Amino acid sequence: MTYVQLSPLDLAIAALLLLIPALISLALKLGLQKSLAIAALRTVVQLSLLGLILEWVFEANRWYYVLPMLLVMLIAAARAAISRSARQVPGSHITAFASLTLATSLTTFAITELVIGADPWFTPQYVIPLLGMLLGNGLTGISLGLDRMLSDIVLQRPAIEARLAMGSSLWEASRQHLKEGVRNGMIPIINAMMVVGLVSLPGMMTGQILAGADPADAVAYQILIMFMIAAATALGTITLCLLTFRRLAHPMARLRWDIITHRDETPAPSHAKK
Predict the structure, then answer these.
(1) Looking at the domain assignment, is residue 212 inside a domain?
(2) 234 lies in the same domain as 124
(3) How many domains does the chain have?
(4) Is the pTM of this model over 0.85?
(5) Does residue 254 or residue 102 have the better pLDDT?
(6) What CA–CA distance (Å, rounded) separates 86 from 144?
(7) Any stretches that span the bilayer, and where are they (predicted)?
(8) How many CB atoms neighbour CB 129 within 10 A?
(9) Is 167 helix (H, G, I), strand (E, B) or coil?
């Protein structure tokens, strides 16, 4: 089985599909035409550049080309994750980077070494696509988890302070909100796993089938990916929530409410009274 190679003309014809959302935006006066055009242009430019870079990296097959690319992907994912969260604390970008690095690197290394048996360990054909898929899903999970935990802590401040006044430890007074954050971060991947194969055909499996791969092999790889995403999302979310909680914890057994900020806000001075 072979795949149909797409030409620039084929992609130009496919671009005509964008007329549908553009016309809807015009008819309803949504004002999304400019954003849609910019998004389409960025899609073409970014993916075209990525294709050229991947061709070069795959051909070179050297770790000192692969690692910088992975680092750029991790930094971009951490920035995107925090930008999606309405609330954050100082150092959230570094914390998100550390959480994503731990979760995705550990998961990717375990699969490439123990399951796929990639040789060498940095084989770009496996490491780059797998890490990319984990980051794309993991950043959504950690952003949802962080936002939920911090929002709950802010909204439930009176209840938390009441529990502290009654003798509860800081962990006992706050752990329910951390648990809710982790639960919220896990919901998207759990929902996706519930309907995969029935409602949705994931992009990786669809791409492999269109490229001529055996459907059974495509399904096996997709199952592998779903399990990887679940593990990386869970590990990344709980790591980020725990590190953020540690950042909030004050030595005097209270939470540092003053450092929690909403998007586009700056934290209050540390000496501010609440």
Answers:
(1) yes
(2) yes
(3) 2
(4) no
(5) 102
(6) 9
(7) 12-32, 39-57, 63-82, 94-116, 128-146, 189-211, 223-245
(8) 14
(9) coil
